[in-house]
Specification:
- This protein is mostly helical and about 160 residues long.
- The chain contains eight helices and four strands; from the N terminus they run αβββαααβαααα.
- It has helices at about 1-20, 45-50, 55-60, 65-85, 90-105, 110-120, 120-130, 135-160, and strands at about 30, 35, 40-45, 90.
- The strands form two sheets. A two-stranded antiparallel sheet has the order 1-4. A two-stranded antiparallel ribbon has the order 2-3.
- The chain is flat and about 85 Å long.
- The N and C termini lie far apart (about 85 Å).
């Protein structure tokens, strides 16, 4: 019995000691993270992109930007600058959040969600809530809009 208690105590201490060590990754530097820009695949660091002028970007990409594109670029550039710390680094959480918002398509049209709401009604909205992935919020929003448009179309068809 003493051996079992001793073995249990040793195992508890060993397991507890593994949890005491955590590895912390060094913060990423914005000057070391590159993205591809333009038709020729030129790479530019996020730090340079946050400080770049619109004319420089147009020259790099080889395309003339419209007024709305210039405003969008300026806004995105300010957001990127806000996420870069004074020492040129950024926390991984901040930049992951930035890229997730930029590329997840949550602000655009979601055909699946719209079709669920439009074709299946409230059951489709429930299905949209039950599906869990990165685009859940967009799917739910468009399922509700699809349901609303479906009800309006139904009322127009049967009341007129």
């Amino acid at each position: 019995m003493k051996k079992i208690i001793l073995l249990f105590t040793v195992i508890c201490l060993v397991v507890n000691s593994f949890a005491a060590f955590t590895l912390v990754a060094p913060p990423l530097k914005a000057s070391e993270v590159y993205i591809t820009v333009g038709k020729n695949g030129e790479k530019i660091s996020l730090l340079d992109l946050s400080r770049m002028k619109i004319k420089d970007l147009q020259q790099l990409t080889g395309k003339k930007m419209k007024f709305a594109d210039k405003i969008g670029f300026t806004i995105a550039q300010k957001k990127l600058r806000a996420r870069i710390n004074n020492d040129g680094t950024f926390s991984q959480k901040k930049i992951q959040k930035f890229f997730k918002r930029a590329g997840d398509g949550s602000s655009g049209f979601h055909l699946g969600g719209f079709a669920l709401g439009f074709l299946l009604g409230l059951i489709g909205v429930l299905i949209a809530y039950l599906l869990n992935d990165d685009k859940k919020s967009s799917r739910v929003k468009w399922a509700w809009l699809g349901l609303l448009i479906g009800v309006v179309v139904y009322l127009i068809v049967f009341l007129i």
